[in-house]
Design a protein that fits this description.
about 25% strand, Dna Ligase, domain 1, Rossmann fold, D-amino Acid Aminotransferase, Chain A, domain 1, 10 helices, alpha+beta
Length: about 350
């Protein structure tokens, strides 16, 4: 191996046994390893767990770039140990994607509030404290119909709730009905629900409040990005926040399969143009993120909004995923390799 070959660590969560057994061919990231090698990189697995943080740290200090696939919440574990480690990597000169600082701008639900004025936005509120939430949310619920609350950081539907009244007015309702994206629908006392949500404000985090989108049963479109370019789409009929039928029991119905499409797929070209030419540049400006700081791979989840006057679909941003984007379309692995090549070349040019 020549000295100018760049070493790239791919980081994902696993236990000691997984770390010992991990190779470039036996994980779900095997296609990414393959494309990185084809682009001239020397990729290697770097399985992470808090139990062997120092060992991972030493490994990452010896590479040129780190690509990370670790959820913000995973079976009770968070990124509180990993993110400082990645910051240390970046400060030492290692390229890190996605950098924790960018995650805090793009990969939290607060981005829905900060970009609410863009073409993908809707009437969005943010509550930054339990006191503010208690003071403002009941009135909002009473006047604006079903709402969707989203905790600042989470994945897999954790901390995402549809909330609606069980009566015509808040004063008449002793209970509200809440439906968590990862669980079933149950009636609860409003006070008890707000008390439960207080934990979401820990460590300065927040709750975002949006109107429920009535076209949600028509599905979700996941737009996959490498940097500022679309590399594919995933279309899925989702069941999260769709109220189950009365005879369906309390278990949440299961979503349909996600069908992958290339970036060139005809049904999504209007959305592609919006993402590449309007919304991504506008988001970067609002959040203060330059082109070289965008995640190497990320995705934006869209629901269908009301059709416009011409009968065209509109799109409402549901969330942005930057921490652990997988599964990905077939073309995305090559896109990751191209994007990383461009990033490291730019770093070399700029010194």
């Amino acid at each position: 191996m020549t000295e100018n070959v760049k070493k790239v660590a791919i980081v994902w969560r696993g236990d000691r046994e997984t770390r010992i057994a991990a190779t470039k061919t036996n994980s779900r990231y095997h296609k990414i390893f393959e494309e990185l090698e084809a682009a001239g990189f020397a990729p290697e697995p770097a399985v992470f767990d808090e139990a062997f943080t120092d060992e991972v740290l030493q490994q990452l200090l010896a590479v040129d770039a780190v690509l990370v696939w670790v959820n913000p919440l995973d079976d009770g574990k968070t990124r509180k140990i990993l993110d400082p480690l990645l910051r240390t990597m970046a400060e030492s000169g290692v390229f890190v994607s996605t950098h924790p600082g960018v995650i805090l701008k793009m990969g939290v639900k607060e981005v829905l509030y900060e970009t609410r004025h863009l073409g993908w936005g809707v009437d969005t509120l943010i509550y930054r404290s339990a006191t503010e939430f208690r003071q403002a949310f009941p009135a909002r619920l009473a006047t604006d119909g079903p709402r969707v609350l989203k905790r600042s950081r989470g994945n897999g539907g954790q901390g995402v709730w549809k909330v609606e009244l069980n009566a015509k007015t808040l004063s008449d309702a002793s209970f509200i009905r809440v439906l968590e994206a990862k669980a079933g629908s149950v009636p609860v006392d409003l006070e008890a629900f707000m008390s439960r949500c207080e934990a979401y404000f820990a460590d300065g985090e927040s709750i975002v409040d949006q109107p429920f989108q009535e076209r949600l049963p028509e599905g979700m479109i996941r737009c996959y990005m490498c940097g500022d370019s679309v590399v594919g789409f995933g279309q899925q009929l989702i069941k999260a926040l769709v109220t189950p039928m009365p005879d369906a029991g309390s278990e949440a119905p299961q979503p349909g399969p996600r069908i992958m499409h290339p970036a060139s797929a005809a049904p999504f070209q209007r959305l592609r143009d919006k993402m590449e030419k309007e919304w991504t540049p506008q988001m970067m400006s609002v959040l203060g993120i330059d082109r070289q700081s965008l995640p190497v791979v990320w995705d934006a989840d869209f629901l269908y909004g009301p059709r416009d006057a011409a009968g065209n679909d509109t799109y409402v941003l549901c969330e942005i995923n930057v921490s652990c984007v997988f599964a990905i379309p077939d073309d995305a692995s090559a896109g990751i390799a191209r994007e990383l090549t461009w990033r490291l070349d730019r770093r070399a040019i700029e010194g």
